[in-house]
TrEMBL record:
EC number(s) per entry: 2.7.7.7
Gene giving rise to this polypeptide: polA
Organism: Metarhizobium album
Name this polypeptide is given: DNA polymerase I
The organism's taxonomic lineage, starting at the top: Bacteria, Pseudomonadati, Pseudomonadota, Alphaproteobacteria, Hyphomicrobiales
Leader sequence segment: none
Subunit and partners: Single-chain monomer with multiple functions.
Length: 1000
């Protein structure tokens, strides 16, 4: 090594624990070997090396080494027996991974360095000082504060989680002292993680103040009698020896005997076949492909390497360091607890709680279901926590187990306007039951008022923890990613907590787990899940708060009744998690949950909290126009009917159409009335009857008026002055989101009146609304899944797909094609996706059913792959009871084998459509999950506001529109990658304007 070289020193032990704690457990499919930490480590190291070799980054290492702890037995342990004595032994599933990670390092062609009796930090310090003495630069890849004492003008640290260099100013900013005083600061503060005593009562701020005043530790101890504060003075004098001992413990050794000299740490080129062989042995498919591509290897021609697995005494590793699990691995983005990025979620990941040794995931899932179905829930065991000390004990217990179920009780189902009344916690009791399946739950009342039981006469009930004090403690718990928070329909609680300044990190949602597992099979509400999986019917809300005129908000429920209701919710939620989590693994649906469902929760919560501005004046004017239009239609309807009647009355309308006028096609409902459904009226209008057409038009105008122009002003939030819709992730079977209160996804856009309503959705001054819409995404998905050559070629060439279809079917040249011919092809293209019948197509095009039948027959003749796809999909659905999207989402159709022909036919049509519509829904979900990080990385302030099926709407500063549009388009068009390489390109149309209609 020479002056000007650059040495990278990676804290390998820190990487191990961060990889282990930040990712869900992963086992090797072939034999169940735990490999989650190995996977995370390899992904982190690959990204670091890839970035390091990228000369555009600006820091390119010439030398590189990964440093590990040899074991927990070091010279510090001999010096001070209590050193790190509070650390637990590594988890059993991590033990065999220590040796595998060392093998991984060697497979990366990197020095793997450890020295018996010393810690990794000491080895790093020795190398760093040696390199610095030569005149080389050093980058220590770690964020560990223990290493900050090494920082100098030539030695920097790199926080890979924040992609941030840590230099002298950064150390001063964080700790209040320069790097050379970090030893003295830690000598005073101690370190509870490492069991370093320090001086009791001295925290970082106080230590920094003392060192600024007295210069260094020796001077401070010598002049401790001068300290004015009595307690501080007495503590330092009494514990001077502990401070000196602590200094010895925190000072990193720079004289470690090294087996490898600096010159031996030269960064060598990657040995592609060697690394690919190791990765194949670990069965890391995604990373194997990535590495093979980068190294120019043929992965298929490389055999898996022989890798020895070490268990027991031979598997060396340090004790568990909670401080090493403070962030996600590089290459992995953790967005509010939802993991995404380079590491694909593990389909075989086992839940963290409960026994699994010697069992398959399916065995564990079955055992859990049987256990909790047999175990009765005891409502009398719940407690109300009404003091801070008890709350602290429960929170400490949650930290100890690393798992807690959480639920809120509020004054409203609208998370944007609800006030917190209390919250409940449930934890698994590992003390009395090592399996962790004994649940205890509690309710913490915060804002109950006197009324129906505690106190009469008004006012706040006594003996409740002050809201601010409880939220402060709750914030520490909910924002700690190392503790898994479990909730049912978490988005509500997430949005609520966000309003109180708390961002939930590290979570699971039992509703979404059920949705991934059983979409189409059953409901996913807590009560339904509880009865199905636990055999327990929870207390109904109306049983504690009443309903109708006698109902009260939850803050008026007495605390005893509230405790039973709220604690039960948390208890049931945790039990459901115990049952559902291993099912995800057993059914290989973990990836769907962790890639498509869980990460979307915070994204939607932020969108809902942003809302969108609507113009009251435009809505008022439109209401007037719609009222006038409806009134004009009423007059025409009365003239055609020959009398006045209540148009909105199905009975009176039926009597006019089928009784008085004797129109054909009349059928009576079970109540004996004539059916006047929309389909009946459309059918009559299609045969040339004018009155039914006028009725259809009248219904449309009055619905627009009542549902939108009259109703939307009532949804404007009193504080934000914006409309905040609520999205549901688990209400459709195919993965499509739905919108409610108000529903902004069903505004009709095929009529001029419907489009006018969108003009009322406006940008705020200085901003624009940007609409980005997938072009014909479901047809593109159809071309991909059915593998239709003509469609694939047309999409690849950018040809008008409907004109191409018309040309294929009717032999009409694309150039100069009549619009009516194209319209018919378009109707068939989209109709095929939804399993349209000849009857439906005939109605839509206004042609005879026989002609429509001929069109459909000809369509399948020209595109035989579509019929093959339909037949194969129906067969798969009948065999498995479900179909899958291209990303593995399952949609169940339990009645597809029904003996009722109409029920069976409906399920077959739905099963054909689900993989197409569901895949399109999954693609836009992936785009939404990636969108915010991409915009932030580009330094743009665009805010995603709405999702309407295939469209995303953003609010963008006027000056950033041109920069934002290509990023939005790029993310959306590439959303399927890298999981799926679409056979046809995805295309997005984007525009920006002052209102939604103009932007569309």
């Amino acid at each position: 090594m020479k002056k000007g070289d650059h040495l990278f020193l990676v804290d390998g032990s820190g990487f191990i624990f961060r990889a282990f704690h930040a990712l869900p457990p992963l086992t090797r499919k072939s034999d169940g070997l735990p490999v989650g930490a190995v996977s995370g480590f390899c992904n982190m190291l690959w990204k670091l090396l890839t970035d390091a070799r990228d000369t555009s980054v600006g820091v390119t290492p010439s030398h590189f080494a990964v440093i590990f702890d040899y074991s927990s037995q070091t010279f510090r342990k001999q010096l001070y027996d209590a050193y790190k004595a509070n650390r637990s032994a590594p988890p059993e599933e991590l033990i065999p991974q220590f040796g595998l990670i060392r093998e991984a390092t060697r497979a990366f062609n990197l020095p793997c360095i450890e020295t018996e009796g010393f810690e990794a930090d000491d080895i790093i310090a020795t190398y760093a000082r040696q390199a610095e003495a030569i005149g080389a630069d050093v980058t220590i890849v770690s964020s560990d504060k223990d290493l900050m004492q090494l920082v100098t003008p030539n030695v920097h640290m790199y926080d890979s989680m924040k992609d941030k260099q840590i230099g002298i100013p950064d150390v001063i900013e964080k700790w209040g002292v320069p790097p050379e005083k970090m030893i003295d600061l830690q000598s005073l503060t101690g370190d509870s993680t490492d069991n370093i005593p320090g001086v009791p009562g001295i925290g970082p701020k106080t230590a920094a103040q003392l060192l600024e005043e007295y210069g260094d530790l020796d001077t401070l101890l010598a002049r401790a009698g001068e300290i004015k504060q009595q307690k501080r003075r007495e503590s330092i004098i009494a514990n001077a020896d502990l401070a000196r001992l602590s200094r010895t413990l925190v000072t990193l050794r720079t004289d470690v005997p090294l087996d490898m000299a600096l010159d031996a740490l030269v960064l060598e080129p990657q040995d592609g076949p060697k690394l690919v062989g190791f990765l194949k042995a670990m069965e890391f498919g995604t990373l194997t492909r990535r590495v093979a591509d980068a190294c120019g290897c043929d992965a298929g021609a490389i055999a898996p390497a022989e890798v020895k697995v070490e268990w027991g005494e031979s598997a060396r590793g340090p004790d568990l360091d909670p401080g090493d699990s403070d962030g996600p691995p590089e290459g992995i983005t953790v967005v509010d607890g939802a993991i995404s990025g380079a590491v694909e979620a593990a389909p075989d990941a086992l839940p963290a709680q409960g026994p699994h040794e010697g069992t398959t995931p399916a065995d564990l899932a079955k055992a859990r279901a049987e256990l909790f179905a047999a175990e009765k829930i005891d409502l009398s065991s719940y407690v109300a926590i009404r003091d801070v000390a008890t709350l602290d004990i429960w929170i400490a217990a949650a930290r100890e187990t690393g798992l807690v179920a959480f639920d809120t009780e509020t004054t409203s189902i609208d998370a944007m306007q609800a006030d917190i009344v209390g919250f409940s916690l449930a934890i698994a009791d590992n003390t009395d039951d090592p399996r962790g399946t004994k649940i205890r739950a509690a309710y913490i009342p915060l804002a109950h008022k006197a009324g129906t039981g505690d106190l009469l006469g008004g006012g706040t009930v006594e003996n409740q923890i002050p809201l601010a004090e409880a939220l402060l403690r709750l914030k520490d718990l909910l924002e700690d990613p190392s503790i898994l928070k479990v909730a049912q329909n978490l988005k509500y609680d997430y949005l609520l907590m966000q309003r109180y300044g708390i961002v939930v990190r590290g979570f699971d949602d039992t509703m979404l787990m059920s949705y991934v597992l059983d979409a189409g099979n059953n409901a996913h509400g807590m009560d339904s899940l509880s009865e199905r999986w636990l055999g327990h019917k929870p207390i109904a809300f109306k049983d504690v708060a009443g309903s109708g005129r006698t109902g009260v908000t939850f803050d008026m429920v007495d605390i005893d009744r509230a405790t039973a209701y709220a604690a039960e919710d948390a208890d049931v939620t945790l039990r459901l998690w115990m049952v559902l989590k291993p099912r995800l693994t057993a059914q290989k649906l973990t990836t769907v949950y962790e890639r498509l469902e869980r990460p979307l929760v915070p994204v939607l919560a932020r969108m809902e909290s942003r809302g969108i501005t609507v113009d009251r004046q435009i809505l008022s004017r439109l209401s007037g126009e719609l009222a006038q239009g409806a009134a004009a239609l009423e007059d025409e309807i009365y003239q055609l009917a020959g009398e006045k009647f209540t148009i909105g009355s199905p009975k009176q309308l039926g009597d006019i159409l089928f009784g008085k006028m004797g129109l054909p096609g009349g059928a009576k409902t079970k109540t004996g009335q004539w059916s006047t459904s929309a389909q009946v009226l459309e059918d009559l209008a299609a045969t040339g009857h004018e009155l039914p057409r006028k009725i259809v038009d009248w219904r449309q105008l009055t619905k627009l008026k009542s549902t939108y122009t009259d109703a939307l002003p009532g949804y404007i939030h009193p504080e934000t002055r914006r409309v905040h819709t609520s999205y549901s992730l688990a209400s459709t079977t195919t993965g499509r989101l739905s919108s409610s209160e108000p529903n902004l996804q069903n505004i009709p856009v095929r009529t001029a009146e419907g489009r006018k309503i969108r003009t009322a959705f406006i940008s705020t001054p200085g901003n624009r609304l940007l609409s980005a819409d997938y072009s014909q995404i479901e047809l593109r998905v159809l071309a991909h899944v059915a593998d239709i050559p003509q469609l694939k070629q047309a999409f690849s060439d950018g040809i008008d797909i409907h004109a191409m279809t018309a040309s294929e079917m009717f032999g009409v040249p694309v150039a100069g094609m009549p619009s009516e011919v194209r319209r018919r092809a378009k109707a068939i293209n989209f109709g095929i996706i939804y399993g349209i019948s000849a009857f439906g197509l005939a109605n839509q095009l206004g042609i005879e059913r026989s002609e429509a039948s001929d069109y459909i027959k000809k369509y399948f003749e020209r595109f035989p792959g579509i019929r093959d796809y339909m037949d194969a999909t129906k067969a798969t659905a009948r065999e498995n009871g479900y179909v899958e999207t291209i990303f593995g989402r399952r949609v169940h159709y339990p009645e597809i084998r029904s003996s009722n022909p109409s029920v069976r036919a409906f399920n077959e049509r739905a099963a054909i459509n689900a993989p197409i519509q569901g895949s399109a829904a999954d693609i836009i979900r992936r785009a939404m999950i990636r969108m915010e990080p991409a915009l932030q990385a580009a330094g743009l302030s665009a805010r995603m506001l709405l999702q309407v099926h295939d469209e995303l709407i953003f609010e963008v500063e006027e000056g950033e529109v041109d920069k934002t549009m290509p990023i939005v388009t790029q993310i959306m068009e590439g959303a399927a990658m890298p999981a799926i390489d679409m056979k046809v390109p995805l295309k997005v149309d984007a525009r920006a304007a002052t209102n939604w209609d103009e932007a569309h």
